Amino acid sequence: MSLLDGHVVVVGLGFGDEGKGAVVDALCAGQPTTAVVRFNGGAQAAHNVVADGRHHTFSQFGAGTFAGVPTHLSRFVLVEPFALAEEARRLEAAGVRDPLSLLSVDGGALLTTPFHIHANRAREDARGANRHGSCGKGVGETVWYSLLRGAAPGAVVENQEVIGTPGEAPTVADCARPSVLRRKLDALARFYAPLATPPHGIDELVALYRDFAGAVRITDGDETGRLADSGRLVFEGAQGVLLDQHHGFHPHTTWSTTTPHNARALLGGRPHAVVGVTRTYLTRHGAGPLPTESATVLARFPEAHNGTGEYQGSWRAGHLDAALLDYAIAACEGVDALAVTHLDASGLKVVPADGSPAVDLPDPLAWFGARLPVAVAGYGPDRAGYRLVETRSTINA
């Protein structure tokens, strides 16, 4: 059996923007897939897919949507219903019929609200030149608030002062329980009042979230296990290992586990393959270290779908970094194979693992293949430029 025939976990081995969306799309278009399971992150994901003349930047929907594959948002995802509804409208405009019917959501997933988003942006604005590179989507604030149960005002949790009396963190399941949701939103509003106040009233939010609960299928129990036992799953990671909350370079990290560990937990010991995605050069969106940064590389490889974000900051690029690639693979406790994107780029260089000056990389596919099997090769942004390679591995079988 080929490595890609069973469950596949897709992770980014860089600072994000490696091409995970295009790889997931190619995997779903290549053979029957029961569902794409999102296993970390939230509305800050931006996975670009170009297929059959259509382009979409996937955020909360899985990148297998153009291939007709349903999405399941697991308990590890931070769900933002307003952004999800807007994304559904964009997908419908791109020709996807009734996108929300392709979606299921774990009721235990945390809910990102306007309170989290406005607080996140207020903190990032206050940092001025010392910004962390947040996307301004409220992801870190959602996680942080969920850690505060029982914390007293003035306490410091994860390097942030508790500014009020916290309540329970709202979850997706609460959207179908108006009285529970109202209590939790009231507590959120009081807690964040000193920092930021969004324009939405509690009554308005309760009504909108109730509509959301009626539009999607909210699940409980081991939905991922049920899906896994019925067919092949593709697990789509968000951000990259070098931004991981445990393995990244603080404070320029995400509040999320970007390694395969959440996906492995959801699979419950079922056999799977981990595919690590990398470009042929290194990129980073926003603040933080990029050791091989090069203005020449940035100029040579313009981005069609990545630009400067209001909160995230500018798009950056540099040479491939062998040491960081090896570090990311080790943080994953190994990967079975690689998916290499942007193989159509030419004039590439790589900085060797010993930190010596960059050397030419005339045959990137051979260079990567000498390290690990290459299971997916991507040339250009379109699905037509991706090919799956017959690959066998037994690391996670």
Radius of gyration: 21 Å
Distance between the termini: 11 Å
Find the CATH topology of the largest domain. Answer: Adenylosuccinate Synthetase, Chain A, domain 1
CATH architecture of the largest domain: 3-Layer(aba) Sandwich
Shape verdict: globular
> What is the N-to-C succession of helices and strands?
EHEEEEHEHHEEHHEHEHEEHEEHEEEHEE
Please explain how this structure is put together.
Its EC number is 6.3.4.4. Mg(2+) binds at residue 17. Plays an important role in the de novo pathway of purine nucleotide biosynthesis. Catalyzes the first committed step in the biosynthesis of AMP from IMP. IMP binds at residues 17-20, 239, 254. The protein has 397 residues and is of the alpha/beta class. The mean pLDDT is 92. 28% of the residues lie in helices and 19% in strands. A 10-stranded mixed sheet has the order 9-6-5-2-10-1-11-15-18-19, with helices on both faces. The chain has 2 domains: 7-106 and 221-391, Adenylosuccinate Synthetase, Chain A, domain 1 (3-Layer(aba) Sandwich), CATH 3.40.440; 110-219, Orthogonal Bundle (Adenylosuccinate Synthetase, subunit A, domain 2). It has helices spanning 20-30, 81-93, 114-127, 139-146, 178-192, 202-215, 223-230, 261-267, 295-300, 322-331, 364-369; strands at residues 8-12, 35-38, 47-51, 54-58, 71-73, 103-106, 156-157, 160-161, 217-219, 233-240, 273-279, 282-285, 315-318, 320-321, 337-341, 349-351, 359-360, 374-378, 386-388.
